[in-house]
Write a structure and sequence with these properties.
Blueprint (H helix, E strand, L loop, with lengths): L4 H8 L4 E2 L1 E7 L2 E7 L2 E5 L4 E7 L3 H9 L1 E6 L5 H7 L13 E3 L5 E3 L4 E13 L2 E12 L8 E3 L2 E3 L10 E4 L2 H9 L11 H13 L3 E4 L23 E4 L3 H5 L8 E5 L4 H10 L3 E6 L8 H13 L4 E5 L7 H15 L4 E4 L7 H10 L4 E4 L10 H10 L8 H15 L13
Parallel strand pairs: 13-14, 13-20, 14-15, 15-16, 16-17, 17-18, 18-19, 19-20
Antiparallel strand pairs: 1-11, 2-3, 2-6, 4-5, 5-10, 6-9, 7-8, 9-10, 11-12
Length: 423
């Protein structure tokens, strides 16, 4: 005896799929519907299939026109999906920007991807017809997470924790340099040797450290040529102009950090020509109404050949919701270039934002030992990762010891707190 219809539907509902809108054209205009039964068939020639019930209007129109298009919806396009599923009344093409593909079938301009097809074969399949289409044209207009269908509900990809996170220190050297140097009537409060010793300790823990350009004698305990403990990663330097770039040795293990701006493409090209890896940085990423500009900057830096793209929180304190919205889009746009983020400890939200960033696809963080410059504290982030069972290549115990040394050198309690916890 065949399985009953209710059980069959229930079982199929456990198979997650994307949400596809299948469209076609006829003499009286465009028509479309959502379809869960879609899959690829062949790469050569490029074939896909959709299964449509024989008693629906779109089936008859595709049979007559011999063409159809498939638009895959993004996570923020559920309203469009609901309308094409018949859950909302009104013109189905009123939402979104629709345009005719070469076959004449309409495609959604803001879709995650779309395919334009001519029917190559049509096979009976019970109460459905299996339309096999040969793909004529295809596009991926937008990089974002897809809309998903599972158990008769629409949603988006879950936010899993990463297997591993890593960090770079982008604030310690500058903070130490300010205390090494006398300012007005204020004497120097940190010795050059003490500053160099701390930077060596942080690098020995496996952390890349940003240093001034040129590094200068005040930070000369470990040289930029990569000497020191074998596990030490390279330094990074913030390159602001062509002059500072020439002070970075060619083909060195130094990473050039370049802020997005009018001169960024030229500087990135020049840095890569010198054999340097480049981190492209975007500032004030969570400021009001900045999302579109931030995503455009991510696109530019990825196209320019950056090895990494870094997003800086800036002066505007971010909320976990804003962090999630911006980073989910930015991570998708940057792929395959890895994204890193620098967060601040503001209003007690630093670690909450870091957790949100991890669950939004970020695996690399820019931090500061002890949080002494207002940035997210290095050892606090590693404490969070430890409690979440997220691995890290960083020697946390060594970093905790460095934080204790920094407090003694600093002469006052550090903003970070977890270095006092057991490592």
């Amino acid at each position: 005896m065949a399985v009953d219809a209710q059980t069959f539907r229930s079982v199929l509902g456990q198979w997650p799929t994307g949400v596809a809108v299948v469209t076609t054209t006829s003499g009286d205009g465009w028509h479309g519907m959502t379809a869960g039964s879609f899959c690829s068939v062949s790469l050569d020639p490029p074939l896909v299939l959709v299964c449509l019930a024989r008693d629906i209007h779109t089936h008859a129109l595709i049979e007559r026109s011999g063409v159809f298009a498939v638009s895959f919806l993004g996570k923020d396009q559920a309203v469009i999906g609901h309308r094409f599923a018949g859950r909302e009344s009104g013109d189905r093409f009123a939402r979104g920007t629709w345009a005719p593909a070469p076959t004449g079938a309409p495609v959604l301009a803001e879709a995650v991807a779309w395919l334009d097809c001519r029917v190559a074969y049509a096979y009976p399949g019970g109460d459905h017809t299996i339309f096999v289409g040969e793909v004529q044209t295809a596009e991926t207009p937008r990089r974002t997470a897809p809309l998903l269908f599972h158990s008769r509900a629409w949603g988006q990809l879950a936010d899993p924790l990463p297997d591993e996170v890593t960090i770079a220190d982008t604030g310690l050297a500058a903070a130490l340099h300010r205390r090494v140097t006398a300012s007005g009537s204020a004497p120097a409060r940190v010795t050059r040797a003490g500053a160099a010793r701390l930077l060596d300790a942080v690098r020995a823990a496996g952390v890349r450290v940003r240093t001034p350009v040129p590094p200068g004698p005040q930070m000369n305990g470990a040289q930029m040529n990569g000497t020191g403990p074998a596990r030490c990663p390279s330094w990074s330097v913030l390159v602001e102009d062509a002059v500072s770039l020439t002070q970075v040795p060619r083909d060195s293990p130094v990473t050039a950090e370049i802020v997005d701006g009018p001169d960024a493409p030229r500087l990135i090209e020049a840095a890569r020509a010198r054999g340097l890896a480049v981190v492209g940085r975007v500032s004030d990423v969570f400021a009001p109404a900045r999302e579109a500009a931030v995503l455009a900057a991510v696109d530019r830096l990825a196209a320019a050949g950056c090895a990494e793209i870094a997003l800086d929180e800036g002066a505007e304190a971010a909320s976990p919701l804003l962090v999630r919205n911006v980073l989910q889009e930015a991570v998708a746009r940057a792929r395959p270039v890895p994204l890193r983020v620098r967060l601040r400890e503001a209003y007690g939200l630093g670690l909450a934002n870091a957790l949100t960033a991890m669950k939004s696809g970020v695996r690399r963080f820019d931090v500061t030992l002890g949080g002494i410059d207002g940035g997210l504290c290095a050892e606090d982030l590693l404490f969070l990762a430890d409690r979440l069972d997220v691995a890290t290549p960083i020697d946390r115990a060594a970093l905790v010891a460095a934080a204790a040394d920094l407090e003694a050198l600093w002469g006052s309690a550090l903003p970070g707190r977890t270095y006092r916890a057991a490592s």
